[in-house]
Amino acid sequence: MKKTIKNKKILIAAGLVVVVAGGFLGYRAITKNKTATTQYLTAQVRRGNIVVTVSGTGQVLASNQTNIEPQVSGTVVSVPVVNNESVSAGETLVELDPTNDERAARDAQTSLQNSQLALETLEAPAATSTILQDQEAVAKAGQTLATDQANLTADYTNAYADISTAFIDLSNLVNGLNNILYDKNINPTQGDVYAYDNLISNINQNASVYSEDAILSYQTALANYNQSLADYKNSNIDSSTSTVEILLNETNDTLKSVSIANTNLKSLLDLVNTTLEQNNDKVPPALTADETTLESYITTTNSELSTISDIQNSIEATKQSLGTDNLSISQTQAALAQLEDGPTALAIQTQELAVTQAQNALDDAKQNLANDTVRAPFAGVITNITAKIGQPVSPSTILGVLLSNKQLAQATLNEVDVVNVKVGQKALITLDALPNFTATGKVSEVDTLGTVSQGIVSYNVQVALDSPNPLIKPGMSDTINIVTNEKQNVLLVPNSAVTTRQNKSYVKTTNSSGNPTETPVVTGLSNDVMTEIVSGLSEGDTVVTQTIAATASGAAPVSSPASGSSPKTPGGFGGSGLLMRGGGL
Hints:
Blueprint: H1 2-13, H2 22-32, E1 39-44, E2 46-60, E3 65-68, E4 74-78, E5 85-87, E6 92-96, H3 99-123, H4 128-182, H5 192-200, H6 207-233, H7 241-278, H8 285-341, H9 345-370, E7 373-375, E8 380-383, E9 392-393, E10 400-403, E11 408-414, H10 415-418, E12 426-431, E13 434-446, E14 451-453, E15 456-465, E16 477-494, E17 499-501, E18 504-510, E19 516-526, E20 530-535, E21 542-549, E22 558-561
Antiparallel strand pairs: 1-21, 2-11, 2-16, 3-10, 4-6, 4-9, 5-8, 6-7, 8-10, 11-15, 12-13, 12-16, 13-15, 14-15, 16-20, 17-18, 18-19, 19-20, 21-22
Helix pairs in contact: 3-9, 4-6, 4-7, 4-8, 5-6, 5-7, 6-7, 7-8
């Protein structure tokens, strides 16, 4: 605990100025008010610098050598130094092929420009011509819908007319089939279907099968006809569309059963005709007449089936068109409303986030490109060079060893913190043995492989001190704070003002009457005290950092974070206006 307090003092000495005012005054004003009302501690959004650090403990090293390892994988294209050559800090030691990283940086730049252009387009007011075009699109969609509705009404009217015509033909077809089957033109004592069977039964044993098929299929057709005819008689041209569709299906089924009856009867007649001719027997004239009549029945049936099928397909197609029309109207109306109303705050915030993500991707791509050049972390003598042109390397490859007269300190970081640490980053070193002493330096080496102990993975980080000091002895216990990120002149709010729900950040701002309103924001960097606001707030806005719930008179106030959900980081900020300015490491 003492070490933590000491480190905070060092950070403050390095230039992090804390301005505390509003919280105490706000609290005093609240405690004087005996009315049991909810009170809010607030802070103003200010511009300042934010510094993000990670820290670890370790020891001062006895050795002054550092392994030179690349930060990225690649292929060596240049080694401009030789063994035992003196090099200065930042001098190029090895160059990797930058082709892929140059391409990635270029693509990231294009993506950022596209995101920025999309944001500008979103925020720009819609042109009058564009609004007129969308209004015209809505009108056209409405006209198309009206046309298709009229077409559907016409389809149902035509369908009923086609059904009526079909029943006229069906009446003739059913009666005609009955005449062919049961008239007594061949033998006055029996129907023709039985007479045809008897004509060839002694010659062809299949005659009875054909005649039975013809009779049964006719009976089925007759039953279907009688049922559909009864339903047709109970309807009229003004019947509902559902009734018309039922009649269409019944008429279609009846025509299909008549078609089967036609086919089976024709098969019987053809069998009789062929058998008689093959046996050199005389073909009755009535058989020839029936075959001719049946051909006309088949033609009529097929024509009616085609008509009914066509109108069914037309109705279905028009109904599908109406569905498309309704969707088109909804979409065009929504597009017009969006143009007239302008983009929503959520849409702008989403696109702003896309710009931030694209900028981060570009920064990462540029960093990877910069890492293709392996530089000396400090001045010294390069030796044990193993890098060769054309050699594939990875972050675990030792390219050489850099010897220095600088003192090296080492600290151990956990796997969460080490991912943000890079060679060359600034660091602040304090020593247990020298309470009032602080040294500065830069990261010179980061372990590629971690060490696992009791299930916890840790990595060693070496820092080269900027200036040697005889007071610093090998083996001394150290604490190293490494600056992993910092930004200048950005909007800042206390951590206790920011809440996060479902991966979205919010703050509570106060209006002129002092009532808090939740406002969505896009956040950037954050440390133990402050959070950067990328968008959603302006400098000078007032945000709620703590809520003091209403209590009975004289009772101690009950405080809570600014929102009902957990704050961004542990610990409240009170009501003070906290700003980090200047300095840094």
